[in-house]
Design goal:
It is a single chain. The protein is built from eleven helices and nine strands. It has 269 residues and is an alpha/beta fold. The protein has a single domain, classed as TIM Barrel (Alpha-Beta Barrel). Helix 6 (124-133) runs parallel beside helix 7. The protein is globular, with a radius of gyration of 18 Å.
Length: 269
Amino acid sequence: MTPPRYHLGCPVWSNRDWVGSLFAAGTKPKDFLRQYSAVFNTVEGNNCFYGLPKPEVVVRWRDETAPGFRFCFKFPRTISHDQRLRGVATETTAFLERLRPLAEADKLGPSFLQLPPSFGPDALSILRDYLMTLPGELQYAVEVRHLAFFAKGEDERQLNRMLLELGIDRVMLDSRALFSADPDADPETQTAQNKKPRLPVHAISLGSRPFIRYIGHPDVDANRPFLKPWIDKLALWLAEGREPYFFAHTPNNRQAPRLARLVNEWLQA
C-alpha cells in the first residue's frame, strides 16, 4: 500500500487464520509483522494494555516494519483502570520510554487511553491533569465509555472542549455493524457481542488525527451501509488536511484484513 495521508489497519498483526490470504502460504509467526506492514500502514497495540513488551522486542518491531508504518498502543490498564490516572507518573514514564525507539524512528502513532465505563464526568479534572503531564512531542487519543459522555449534554461538551483545547482526539468506537449480526449465527459473533461495548456513535474530530475503531459484521459485505458514512467523513477530514486512523475489527478478527481492504478500495475510488 502506498503510504497515504490516512492510516488503515487491524487490531492485531498476528493471526494464524491469515496464512494463505494476507500472509503467504507457509508463513511462520516470526514473519507475520513484516508481511503485515507490507500491506497495512498501522496497527493497534492492545498488548501493552496487559504488560509492557521487552526493550529488545520493541527494537525488533521497529526494524521489521516498513517505512511510514505507525503503531498505536493502548495505555496499560494499571494506569487507566487499576489506578484511574492517579499516582501513575512512574508507570506512564515507563510506558512511553519503552516505546521511544519507535517514536525516534517515526513509527509511533497516537497512543490511546481507554477509560472504563465507570470513569465519568466527576473525574474530568483528573483526566485533564493527567493529559497535561504527557510529553507534548508524542500523539494521543482518548476513548471514553461512560454514557454521560454520549448524551450530548454539558458533560459531553466539557469533555470535547477539553480535548479540543489540548489537541487530543476522542476515539470514535462504532460497534453498530457487529450488533446488527445474528448472535445465533456463530459462537464467535455471540462472544464478541457479549464483550464489546454498545455505545452511541459520535463522529467528531477534535484534533488533527481522527481515530476510528470500527467493530464490524462477520460478513464483510454486510458492513457496506455502516461504512458509507465513515467513507464520507474520512474524505472530508482528508480534504481538511487531517490524518485519520481507521482500525477494522471483526469477531475473532478473521475477516479484519478483508474489511480493511474494503475501506481502502472505497476510499481510493
